[in-house]
Amino acid sequence: IDLMYHSLAVLVPITIGQGSNLKTADALASGAPVILTERAVRGYEDVLDADSEGVTVVESITEFRAAMRAAVEAPTRTSPVGVPRRQMLTWDQRLQPFLELVTSLV
Asked: Is residue 39 predicted with pLDDT exceeding 90?
């Protein structure tokens, strides 16, 4: 994640597959701007609803390319983006609903 933080943007060009993706979680927690396809966002809608700072979600290759150009041309970042979402993406936070369910069954 430290390597991602120092990048101009983290790219998550997922176009096929099902379910949530750990690559997306890593990117969103990196503190760097993130460019994602709509499919890459699946499973993390709640995180983006709470904090979408520095996140660009694209629908097409043309939009992805334009977002990459914009990231290269953007002013240099001096602090992390998406700090609240980083806290939402810890294992403790993401697994809390599951732990509550298991506890209620015991």
From this structure: yes
| CB-based contacts of 40-47 (< 8 A; 24+ apart in sequence) | 40/12, 40/13, 40/14, 43/19, 44/20, 46/88, 47/85, 47/88, 47/89
What's residue 17's pLDDT?
85
Tens-digit pLDDT profile for residues 54-90: 999 999 999 999 999 999 999 999 999 999 999 899 8
Distance of CA 81 to the CA centre of its chain: 11
Which helix (H) or strand (E) covers residue 11, if one does?
A: strand 10-12
Q: How far apart are CA 31 and CA 76, in angstroms?
A: 13
CA-to-CA distance for 54 and 33, rounded, in angstroms?
5
Q: Taking 70 as the threshold, does the pLDDT of residue 1 lie above it?
A: no
> What is d(CA 21, CA 39) in angstroms, rounded to the nearest whole number?
9
Its pTM stands at 0.85
Spatial separation of the C-alpha atoms in residues 30 and 43, rounded to whole Å: 17
Sheet bearing 55-58, strands edge to edge:
10-12, 34-37, 55-58
